[in-house]
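User: Hey, quick favor. My workstation is busy. Could you predict this chain's structure for me?
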Amino acid sequence: MSDDRDADRDARGRAADGDGQASGTAQEHVPEHDAAGKPQPGHLVASGPPPEHDAAGKLLPGHVVAREPLPEHGVAGEPQPGHVVAGEPVPGQVVVIAKEPVPGRVKTRLTPPFTPREAATLATAALADTLGAVAGVPVRRRVLVLRGGTGPWLPPGFAVLPQRGNGLDERLAAAFDDAYRARPLPVVLIGMDTPQVTSPLLACAVAALATCDAVFGPAADGGFWLLGLRRPDPALLLGVPMSRPTTGAAQLRRLRAAGLSVGMLPTLRDVDTVDDAVAVAAEAPSSRFAAVLATLNTGAAR
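Assistant: No problem, here it is.
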């Protein structure tokens, strides 16, 4: 999540992703184990993923929730902790903190090459994509904490609260506090700068708060794009230096210094620069954001 450089920007990020694939020719089968049951030298033995929880059942720090399909219900028929069950609202809320996309007040680092109006159009698309992803999460409550007024980009089903506070740390702390006071449910908070975010990823973040105290989505440049807290406390945010390459590390230290268990989410890239915009549009080619960017690029080419 981020503000513009001229308006107390938040920490920004660039997604770090990659995969690899290996192939080879078929060879004669070699037994995996000898007569004593031990693995043969040089033979790879399949092993399961490392444990996600400790002996007390808590999510291990730095671990992403539920990579393998798990039973949805326990012996007593209750939903398993950390599991999203289709059709059942998760006991939590997702908060989007945003600014009204007014030309000259949003995405100022995109001008140039775009005009202030074009940058605001991109910001509107990013906000609409973000709110659309939140609308698809089966949670008890969805909240928009807004600086400015609403527009046609706001889907139904959102409570709207005004931003309060001066610095970004104050405004984030107030957003958590206001949402939790209105409805004492775990809070997942994101900004308006990650239009590539998906409903399943946000649902995973909310579900993680059933088994850990906090959930954290890092940004590759050192910031963060998501923060979730089971029991919000302003002290967890106030005084954390924002809009710096060390913001994410400082925020994570604050959480762990408070004794909280923290679940980690994948790194995402915020849209702050033109390079960010191009990369994010490529990650989410079917998004409104990608469509608007393609239109603007086509117009510029003419």
